[in-house]
Amino acid sequence: MTLSPYSFDTLIDSGAFGSICSCHNRFNNIDYSCEIIPMEIKNNEQQLQVFKHEICLNAQINHPNIIKLVDVMIDANNIYTIFDSFIGVTLDSMVQKNNGIDEQTAAKYFKQIMSGISYLHHRGIAHKEISLKSIHVLMDNTIKITEFGVYRHPSKSSGMTFVYMPPEVLLEKSFDKFKADIWTAGICLYAMTANHMPWTVNESTPVESVWEDIESQICSGEIIFDDNQSEMLQDLLSQMLSIEPDFRPDADEILNHPWLEMMAPDENIDAPEPNQKIIFTVNSLINDIDNK
């Protein structure tokens, strides 16, 4: 399928609103990723509003460690959102394949992750769905954060999302979305360096009690560290995974933590200004959707 100047190729995955495929711009000879969203989204007002909100957020973001929106298009049947390509592996796959990641490599990745999160937080944006599966490692070891989403109500069917949720969300309290991001980032860092989650399930635990057991551990405030995690790393993790949200450091404080300064001292990341052209294009797209 083609839609000038793009040709659409292999299906990569399913996205929040449609199918994700690889695509190629014939004019600049660059490969991208595209989410193809059926126009039927207009029949679901709530989903349409979520899409508009997220596409506007993506248009304002321009950071080397966050997936970047580069173009949007529309025809009679679909909406096309074009992002820079993030061909590589998810951090989840990398951790599983290597049985965890050594601290120096983890620090280089995590500094990029926290740089992206700091960028978002300074702009009043919370990611809300940070996990090892929403973080991609490119061939050159650049990190790309993807999948901006919203918290789902915890349930037995919510899978990995459940084990990342901070206690205040599980307990259905009002919560600070930025402090919640810090918790989920902390879970990612723990899993990267330990090759397992902080929560353990006894083999004798009945299947129907597994989620209740995990929730109890999350809300207990007790973190059992892995023997391979250094004291300095444990200090950072204990701060990020504090059961009291107010005690968690913000993203900038994490970037200045001694563990990151020691393990990844040369990872300085600069972000350019938002691309005004894509902001204008997105606003035009929204007007086109409303008028179709």
TrEMBL record:
Xref: PROSITE patterns: PROTEIN_KINASE_DOM
Superkingdom of origin organism: Eukaryota
InterPro entries assigned to the protein according to its UniProt record, in alphabetical order: Kinase-like_dom_sf, Prot_kinase_dom
SUPFAM superfamilies: Protein kinase-like (PK-like) (SSF56112)
Entries under Gene3D superfamilies matching the protein: Transferase(Phosphotransferase) domain 1
Boundaries of every Protein kinase domain copy: 6-260
Pfam families, sorted: Pkinase
Keywords: ATP-binding, Kinase, Nucleotide-binding, Serine/threonine-protein kinase, Transferase
GO biological process, one term: signal transduction
An MF annotation (GO) of this entry: protein serine/threonine kinase activity
The name this protein goes by in its record: CAMK family protein kinase
Organism: Trichomonas vaginalis (strain ATCC PRA-98 / G3)
